[in-house]
Design goal:
The protein is α+β, with helices and mostly antiparallel strands. It has two domains: 76 residues, Orthogonal Bundle (Arc Repressor Mutant, subunit A); 88 residues, Beta Polymerase, domain 2, CATH 3.30.460. It is 46% helix and 27% strand. It is built from eight helices and seven strands. A four-stranded mixed β-sheet has the order 6-5-4-7, sandwiched between helices. A three-stranded antiparallel β-sheet has the order 1-3-2. Helix 6 packs antiparallel against helix 7. It starts with a helix and ends with a strand.
């Protein structure tokens, strides 16, 4: 879907990196390794995003580090577009309906860091969860979004917070 609107693979990767999780940051060489693209292509796109005010940068040591600008008027729209592209909007809608007492859903792993790896990892916080129904919903969602979905179910906030402290995560739904 997004590929028909945006022909630049590098631009799409940057959108995912910075607008899926606003906490993501990166510098030119790290993005080169992560994307497998030339530094020149990445630099051109970073400059365009920065000139438009969609990305901000700061110097850390000898590196220019970029991150999304959440104050930009299009930030929420871009975040929503990227969420739809990845399929997280459908997953959240499916998971939170008729599943029990879902308190929160967190995105962890590659997608929480803005990398489109094809595997979506979720932490689901729920004291009561209809596991059979969840498996059915995830199976349907995987077909719709053409990505693999893995999840871990936690019953208490204490359990989940221990793991969240150690890795990148994004709260995508909370009751």
């Amino acid at each position: 879907m997004l590929e028909t609107l945006i022909s630049s693979r590098t631009r799409i990767k940057l959108l995912l990196k910075f607008f899926l999780n606003a906490q993501s940051k990166g510098y030119l060489r790290s993005l080169e390794q992560e994307f497998g693209e030339s530094t020149n292509a990445i630099r051109l796109e970073l400059n365009k995003f920065e000139e438009a005010g969609m990305l901000s940068s700061e110097t850390e040591g000898n590196k220019k580090v970029y991150r999304a600008n959440p104050k930009h008027p299009l930030f929420d729209n871009l975040h929503g577009l990227v969420m739809k592209y990845v399929g997280l909007d459908k997953i959240v809608d499916n998971i939170t309906e008729r599943l029990g007492k879902v308190e929160a859903v967190y995105l962890v792993g590659d997608y929480a860091e803005g990398r489109d790896s094809g595997i979506i990892d979720l932490f689901v916080l729920s004291s009561e969860l209809n596991m059979d129904y969840l498996l059915t919903l995830l199976e349907k969602a995987e077909k719709q979004i053409e990505r693999k979905i893995r999840y871990v179910h936690f019953k208490t906030r204490v359990e989940i917070e221990k793991l969240l402290d150690r890795q990148s995560h994004l709260l995508i739904w909370e009751s």
